[in-house]
């Protein structure tokens, strides 16, 4: 199965993991250790993830690429996958992590698209990026252009691509149209703000209240947000806001929270508008008022980047998406969320922070 064709033979416990990857002998090695963060069962990530190490094989097959970790984020989807609550799960035992950027160390004789020193990202989900080194197949990787910062490259495949697709695929938006979103401080949310700005769109952004609300609002406005509300203020003031600003009725809303927050999005969509759900951080169901569905002809859909990739791998549409996003990153117009860089050996700290609310993005990086 392509999505889980992982190269576990240098990433974890070799005898247990080899059946799901390539059958590489680990007796002939170059002496370098590869460490991976592996879980053998679903559960609390702070308890079930452990670091395991094996030797890296000396020889590469024709289409193999040996890479070294540069940056790998710890995403909410990674945590949910380990917990067993995500929409897809690799065979166990598995290596954590869905995205990241790595440096090419060596390539097989038949590899042409990259060379040592280049940077690459996974071309398919489920590769297991939480590992210091990995041998990958050439068709599992995509080259990163020069000039794209490591942090941005590491988070392009999930956050930036999700934001891009939702802005492009659900409504025919034109300059000065309005979009609205909850969870605006999330990785996807911050990418939505920046890409919307470059498209000439106006954005209304809703976040959960917190102690550093003033700083967060300044940060989102600096990214290009036009309006920022807390959940409470939006419930209390949203009606009056849209009554006074009739031209700001959004055509499109993005929901990653669910529950009452998604209900508020639906209340304030323009006639014929659409809400796209890509997450459910509150773990509460979406409740849509009957009246808005009938009288405003609203629509609700879901989006999952993994499914989009399955249907569009190696297509012109996928190439255009990456080229556009990489171009914005090279120009400094699309920046990654603020993050803490955590040495790989201190992975427990990164995972512990990632499972808590209101924490910065955690990035695994090589030990010094």
TrEMBL record:
InterPro entries, alphabetically? ADH-like_C, ADH-like_N, ER, GroES-like_sf, Mito_Enoyl-ACP_Reductase, NAD(P)-bd_dom_sf
**Family matches, as SMART domains:** PKS_ER
Cited SUPFAM superfamilies: GroES-like, NAD(P)-binding Rossmann-fold domains
Q: What is the superkingdom listed in this entry's lineage?
A: Eukaryota
- Quote the Pfam families the UniProt record gives: ADH_N, ADH_zinc_N
Q: Which EC class does it fall in?
A: oxidoreductase
Annotated catalysed reactions: a 2,3-saturated acyl-[ACP] + NADP(+) = a (2E)-enoyl-[ACP] + NADPH + H(+)
* Family to which the UniProt record says this protein belongs: Belongs to the zinc-containing alcohol dehydrogenase family. Quinone oxidoreductase subfamily.
The protein here is known as Enoyl-[acyl-carrier-protein] reductase, mitochondrial
Q: Which organism is it from?
A: Priapulus caudatus (Priapulid worm)
Q: Source organism lineage?
A: Eukaryota, Metazoa, Ecdysozoa, Scalidophora, Priapulida
Originating gene: LOC106807617
